[in-house]
Amino acid sequence: MESNIQNRTLIAVGKDGENYEFQVKNSYEFSTKGQKLKVEIIEEADGFLFFACEGVRYPVEIVSVRQNTYEVMVNGVSYTFTIETPFSLKRRQILAANRPVSDTEELHAPMPGKIVSVAVEVGQEVNPGDTLLVLEAMKMQNTLMASSKGVVTSVKVKPGLSVGKDDLLVEIKKA
Amino acid sequence: MIKSILIANRGEIAIRIARTASRMGIKTFGIRTKKEPNAVYLQKVDQIVDFPETDGSVPEFLDIPNLVKLAVDNHIESMHPGYGYLSENADFAKACRDAGVIFIGPSPEVIKSLGDKIIAKEIAHRSNVPMVGGTLGGIPNAEEAVKEANRIGYPVIIKAATGGGGRGMRVCYKESEVKQNYELCTAEATTAFNDPTVFIEKFVVNPKHIEFQIVADKYGNVVHLGERECSIQRKHQKLMEEAPSPALDEELRAKMAKAAVDLAKEAHYESLGTVEFLLDDNRNFYFMEMNTRIQVEHPVTEMITGLNLVELQLLIASGEPLPITQDDVKLKGWAIECRINAEDVQAGFTPSIGIIKNLRLPSDNNIRIDSGVRIGTEITPFFDSMIAKLIVHGKDRNDAINLALHSVEHFHVTGVKTTIPFDKAVLHNEVFRKGDFNTSFIETELKDLVYKEEHEELIAALLAVSQYNHDNDFAQDNTENGEQAMDPWVLQKRIRHL
Prior knowledge:
The structure holds two protein chains of two kinds. Chain A is mainly beta. Chain A has one helix and 16 strands. Chain A has one helix at residues 86-98, and strands at residues 8-14, 19-26, 29-32, 35-43, 49-53, 56-66, 69-74, 77-84, 104-108, 113-118, 125-126, 131-137, 140-145, 150-155, 162-163, 168-174. The model of chain A has no long low-confidence stretch (mean pLDDT 89). Chain B has four domains: 4-104, Rossmann fold; 133-202, ATP-grasp fold, A domain (Dna Ligase, domain 1, 2-Layer Sandwich); 208-444, D-amino Acid Aminotransferase, Chain A, domain 1, CATH 3.30.470; 456-496, no CATH class. In chain B, 36% of the residues lie in helices and 24% in strands. In chain B, the strands form six sheets. Chain B has an eight-stranded antiparallel beta sheet with strand order 13-12-9-10-11-14-21-19, sandwiched between helices. In chain B, helix 6 (142-152) crosses helix 7 (175-193). The model of chain B is unreliable at 477-484 (pLDDT under 50). The interface between A and B is large, with 61 and 60 residues.
């Protein structure tokens, strides 16, 4: 029995702009570049998730979903795709073209850890490669450096403070 | 024989020690800390003792007075420090001895002289073991560090005198880097080893890192158990080790083994120990340091020798003579160890924090897994990131590489990211497979830090699309027809819950 569902097109856009376009027939039949791909999600008894494409099984994990952005793992390797329709992709491209270039560099914590020392203060001029602060994680000390020339506009942390991944640490107004 | 043992460590090594001690009829005690009261290692000991309430300024496994007190109060005969923490701390060994507790390792005097890399260099000098040039003493301040570095000539390496495990080491290529690295190094050495002393030596560019395992009893018998190849490193952290090393032939192996044994004899060494060497492109070797503890990578030596190093360590500590002679030691086959760390390789090996949601381990003949985690274990920033060691034994190097590859392909962890895709990248690499690599391998030879199968990205995109499709409008598109409209994802869930 053939259903009368309209095929729709979804595009997976990667971090570096690479994209894969799929025609969706239903939730387990897709095609790309004229090639039909039948997929199946298999949750095994011990809770492991496998994604089968044309019968080939891959160990996978859905790591996070934020709106239409999906981080998935295949064979333990992480991939992040934003899923767009042809219309939303076009809108995104137009918006991106008109976005002003940011004049602020934000230093975020690359990993959770403890601030060991802060080398800069508000108002200080910095150059690329200058040490901003030292972050200790898993007993290793990591020096975080400025990547642009500018003036420090805010320092959000002080030594001894524990920070989470992606916490804002320092802001620099680019010169 | 020793009758009871307090394991002053955690994770996989606590389990590793408990396993052998228990088999030898020794009663094992594990220490429960507030940071991980449900840790797996506590299941593997005969008795649990609670670490006392403290102000928290000194981490549990670095707290000498309290650790010794735990042993004394519970009438435990001996103390095993494992690796890291206090394993190479002479004060700890001495505090144990003063309290009448047998420290599993060399005497405090030997730890002090060898664990202190500065004195170790003097011993190496006396036993005619080749060394690289550098300072003979510790460096008191950053200004002195700059002066010494300029004298030796760049590149130089700043090292913590009591360091180990790759911590407290920084390379400087020019004068401007010395001051900051000196400060980072002393700070790291203080947190990790409780001793800020550092020294400087000439940095051998892109050497191979080769270490010899030795065992020595109190009767002066010293036996070497061959070498381990540890050149697969990132920022001085070993990530994969093997034994033997593809870089040595019988002649060079014999020369280096003799140097290691000579050094151990000169130091009046007693217990397990590892003599680390750098090997340059011209096959010159230099003494780097001697580690007076059991090493993370000890299982590769166990695989190719058939010996149990913890057992030997416990026998020696009990005052027994070595049960083997040099002639008994035969190196058989090839072993590889992959350290499985909770790290996000694609984000520059940053720690991956989280709860292990699921775990599936490979198993087969000649596969060994030493792990300190289970499903539900939380990976926290308090401890180092290693969650397991995968060790395989093959009949030759190629066989071992293929078995390691097969094993990591069947090693699945969800909840945290791991270094498994990195292990695959190394094991697939042609230069690695040829055996012609040094410590620069990851930077110079490994173009992609994670291994991706052909079409893997397409599969990932398709998975994301199908998940999106499932999460979004599909139900609306498909309202009028019962059976056909049944989403297989939903269907599967319903069937499971019938």
